[in-house]
Structure formats: C-alpha cells, structure tokens
Amino acid sequence: MKYGINLPNFGWFGDIDTLVEVAVEAEEAGWDGFFLWDHMLVFKQEDMVLPFADPWVALAAIACNTEKIQIGPLIVPLPRRRPWKVAREAISVDHLSRGRLILGVGIGAPPDVEFEYFGEGSNTKTRAEMLDESLDIITGLWSGEKFSYKGKHYELEEMTFLPKPKKESGIPIWVGGGYPFKAPFRRAARYDGVTPVNSNWPDFLMPDHLEKILEIVKTERGTLKNYDVVVCGDTTGTDSTSDRATIESWAEVGATWWQENISGMRAGIDDLRERVRAGPPAM
Question: What DSSP letter does each residue of 105-126 carry, written as one string?
Fold first, then answer.
C-alpha cells in the first residue's frame, strides 16, 4: 500500500504558497504522494465564495520544491479542458518533477457550477464522449510520433508533440468514476489505475463497493497486476489499531493507494496540517 495526501485547490488551500508548504511537509513526513483537486467552482455563488488556486500552476511550484513525492491532479475534468493543452501541461510538470507526475482524469462534477456557469455543456453522455476522445488525443500526443485525430468532438491535423514523458513507461493515468455506474470503470480498465467515489453524495464508497468495481476492471483487463486502485478516507496517524483496521479493510479487496482526506469537511486547517505532519497511517 502507498499513502498519499488528497486535498482541494480552494478555501484554505486556495493559496499556492500554502499548497507548496503542505507538499514539502508531506514529503518530509514520509507520504508517497500529494494530489490536488481540479475545480473552477464548487459551490453556487449565492451559497459560498472561496479563493481557488490553479492546480497546474500549483503542481509546477510543488514539483520545483520537492524531490521524491509523486504528484498530480485528482481529477482533471477533461471535458472542460482542451486535451492538447492538458497534454502539454502534464508533460511540462512531468519534466519539472523528473517523472513524478500521475494524471487523474474524469468527466467532472458538479456539472452546474463546473460547466454551466461558464457556458459549457453539462450533458453526462456528451462529457463521457469528450473524456474518451480527450484520452485518445493525450496518449496519442504523448507517443512522440506523428499523430492526427478525427472524432465527434475534436479534430487534430497531423503533428508531432515533443518532448515525450520523462520516463520510458510514460505518465500513469488514473481514471475516476462514480459507483454504482459501470461505464466509468470499463474506461478505467484501459489505463493505469482507478479512483472511484460514491455517486450518491454524501454517502461514502465502501469496501464492498470497491469489490464490485474491481470485478468490472478485472473482467476488462484480465488481471489487476501492476494496476493502481486508489481510495480516500480518514485515519488518525496515531492510533495503530484503528488505522490498521481501516487500511486492511481496503487492502483486502484490492486497494493499492490510500489517499488521506485533507479537506475542510474533516477539520480546521491547523488540525489538517498536523495530520499531514504526523505521516502515513500508523500501522
């Protein structure tokens, strides 16, 4: 099991200086990864107005101030981004970090404030089509070979996109999806990892849900070998009995990454930063 920090790019963490400080603290405390949400807005403006940080700019700064910890966005809503721009941003951060980037992708949520507020279409089927085409484009551009594309939503003339990813194995792609839907996990099976959530907010994903999800992934892939299975939740960092029970319940059904939830829905910023400094779950 690997252990990462998972935190929003808004509110207390809508400040790049703070994000860099927390990322450095996470690396010093022994975490394996540091992952940022990618939101433009989360709440309707009449409900709450918060500061936001651009995740790619923040990740570039984090890449320059850390040395070992893996970093990435969780998740990039590709249907509201130009896939070739994401491909270029990812390559740049990948090189800055010397091959430590992981790219998390999904269709994006919530659809009203993330898409409709900016005049973007929010239809779920359309966003799913755009996600699939975007992934085709990004992986094609990353090949470093001549590439062109003609789809329903995007069309690219033939081009060669350089540089390639820093590592020969490329930049890992984790695909997000909401349980109990099945299509997102058939998509995730084609890439390097899956980051599931429960679509019925505020309900949480449970180990038995993950078991069903991995049945879909395994059916598509044939194996879960060398495949990342990412879950998120809360641990204490101090109570080894409690933490061990939490982690083992997920590891038993196939999780390979534990993402510690560091958000305002859990605690105040001082307590959250103390949880980061306490290090990975006490096992």
Answer: EES-S-HHHHTGGGT----HHH
CA distances from 173 to 3, 69, 106 (A): 17, 17, 10
Least Cα distance to 107 among 85, 84, 123 occurs for 123
Strands ordered across the beta sheet of 257-261: 70-73, 33-36, 2-7, 257-261, 228-233, 193-198, 173-179, 103-106, 76-77
> Is the peptide bond preceding residue 280 cis, with omega within 30 degrees of 0?
no
- Mapped onto helix, strand or coil, the DSSP state of residue 163 is coil
- The β-bridge partners of 230 are 257
* CA separation for the pair 268, 272 (Å, rounded): 6
Report yes or no: 69 and 27 within 8 Å, Cβ to Cβ: yes
Number of residues that make up the chain: 283
- Report the candidate in 71, 103, 90 with the shortest Cα–Cα distance to residue 163: 90
List, for residues 69-109, the tens digit of each pLDDT value: 999 999 999 999 999 999 999 999 999 999 999 999 999 99
The C-alpha atoms of residue 2 and residue 260 are separated, in whole angstroms, by 11
Tens of pLDDT along 137-149?
Answer: 999 999 999 999 9
CATH superfamily of 2-178+226-246+255-278: Luciferase-like domain (3.20.20.30)
pLDDT digits (tens, 9 = 90+) for 215-256: 999 999 999 999 999 999 999 999 999 999 999 999 999 999
Confidence class for position 120, pLDDT limits 50, 70, 90: very high
Can you say how many angstroms the Cα of residue 96 is from the centroid of all Cα atoms in its chain? 19
Q: What are phi and psi of 97, to 5 degrees?
A: -90, 0
Pair 29, 278: CB distance under 8 Å: yes
Q: Which residue has the tokens 């939503």?
A: 153
pTM for the structure as a whole: 0.97
